[in-house]
Amino acid sequence: MKYCLILFSFIYLPCILLAQTPSEKAREYQIQEEQYRKTILLREIDSGKYYMEIGEYELADKKLKYALDNIKSVPSELAYFFGKNSYFIGKYKQSVDWLTKYVQLKGTSGQYYQDAIAVLQKAENDLMAQRKTETAQLEEVFSQNYDIDCGPSGKVICPVCKGTTVIVKAGIFGNSYKTCNFCDKHGLLTCENYNKLIRGELAEQ
After folding, report:
1. Nearest residue to 98 (alpha-carbon basis) of 122, 76, 121
2. By residue range, what is the domain housing residue 28?
3. What is the full DSSP assignment across 131-170?
4. Same structural domain, 92 and 172
5. What CATH number has the domain bearing residue 63?
6. How many of the other CB atoms lie within 10 Å of CB of 142?
7. 172-198 tens-digit pLDDT
8. Between the CA of residue 102 and those of 11, 26, 39, 80, 128, what are the distances in Å?
9. Residue 176 pairs with which residues in a beta bridge?
10. Which of 96, 131, 147, 183 pairs with 153 at a CA distance of 20 to 30 A?
11. Residue 144 and residue 163: Cα distance in Å, rounded?
């Protein structure tokens, strides 16, 4: 009986596959291509992380930049790796930009939160020193040019009001308070609106 079932599989399985419509075959091929592309990009990210860890920062930059330029939605881990490596190659403003995005996305629960904060502080300090001593502009890559992946929840704490839903402005006669018109009543932004906000495309509601 066992051998009959095996024989049945060999005879009829190809028939089932051949019975696929052209659109089904195209869809299956598209899924395979997308999976292959994703695998390649994940390898590039892993390679970038590896080169960063062994001090080959320029090579790491090439690997991570390739992933950024070819991935549809930037995962938070890539924002962290790219931001940290940017610090090591002296692109402090770029480092601050990407590490800030990582902290905004993951908060204190992020796997790399402590290290991200430590490198971010160094980058901010070195950026201030750089601005005082350098006039040459470095070619830098900023997160606003990419769609950021906000994770499974699809929401991010509003960076405008810090999730409080209230914007506080200091004035001569004391503080003034205004309801934040960017986020919802819980102080959150959808991923789509967050990406619009960092590109300067989100209007107040």
Report:
1. 76
2. 18-145
3. HHH--SPP----GGGSPBP--TT-EEE-TTTTTSSEEEEE
4. no
5. 1.25.40.10
6. 14
7. 777 888 898 888 989 999 988 888 888
8. 53, 37, 22, 6, 21
9. 169
10. 96
11. 20
d(CA 140, CA 64): 13
Of the candidates 96, 158, 101, 148, the one whose C-alpha atom is nearest the C-alpha of residue 122 is 96
Q: How far apart are the first and last CA of the chain?
A: 68
One domain for residues 43 and 117: yes
Nearest to 130 by CA among 167, 73, 98, 92: 92
Residue that the structure tokens 């619009």 belong to: 196
User: Looking at 104, 125, 145, which one is the last position of a domain?
Assistant: 145
Reference 141, options 78, 186, 183; nearest CA is 78
CB 120 within 8 A of CB 100: yes
Show the tokens assigned to 103: 């902290």
How many separate domains does the chain show?
Answer: 2
According to DSSP H, which parts of the chain are helical?
2-18, 22-53, 57-70, 76-88, 92-106, 113-133, 191-198
Alpha carbon distance 67, 44 (integer Å) = 6
Amino acid of residue 103: V
How crowded is residue 12: how many other Cβ atoms within 10 Å of its Cβ? 10
User: pTM for the complete prediction?
Assistant: 0.64
